[in-house]
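Deliverable D5.2: sample structural annotation.
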Amino acid sequence: MPKRRASGLGRRFGRWLVIEADKAQRWICRCDCGTEKDVSSSNLVRGQSTSCGCWSREVLAIRSTKHGGSRRGKYDQEYGLFRSMISRCHNPNAQAFHRYGGRGISVGQRWRESYAAFIADMGRRPFPKACLDRIDNDGNYEPGNVRWTDMKTQANNTRRNRLVTAWGRTTTLQAWANSLGLSEDVISARLNLGWQPERAFSVPSRRGRNQYSRDDD
């Protein structure tokens, strides 16, 4: 895996996905629209090339409208989802903040500062009821970890459906929490800190730093 990362193969830069990286200076990339192109690796790393150019007209339209959130006088649905994403991660007064920003989920700086950049990376909703879904539910809202999907897929991609194996048994985090009488948040935090599942499930919940201390064993 480290060798794959070093070569650039499999890395994502905006809408580009590196599919061949045998050469140090030129990488073969596939855009989300399907276009494949030989791109300078330095341009990718520096952020000077983020797609084949398929989204340039969208960005131009966004920049020419008020707040980047309306088109032809109509409220932009993507903009509403964009604002909600930022609010639940960075506004402590937001109703869902405790499930996002409250547990360390944030919006990457590129998107947080620019709706145009968000649309450039994500594109428009592919169907009317598409919603934003993080591929890694413990990861941030940032390029490479967010996709457009339907509500059913999003609902299945939650912390409650995280599979954990302990004592030879594999089941969801929610099921473990219910059977052991522990908080899902406590278990998730322990596992994210590197605790072995058996230890994460065995130590009683209590206040104090010990319940969240890093597992150095």
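Annotation notes: The CA atoms of residues 7 and 143 lie 19 Å apart. Residues 1-6, 208-217 have pLDDT under 50 and may be disordered.
The annotation will be released with the project's public dataset once the embargo ends.
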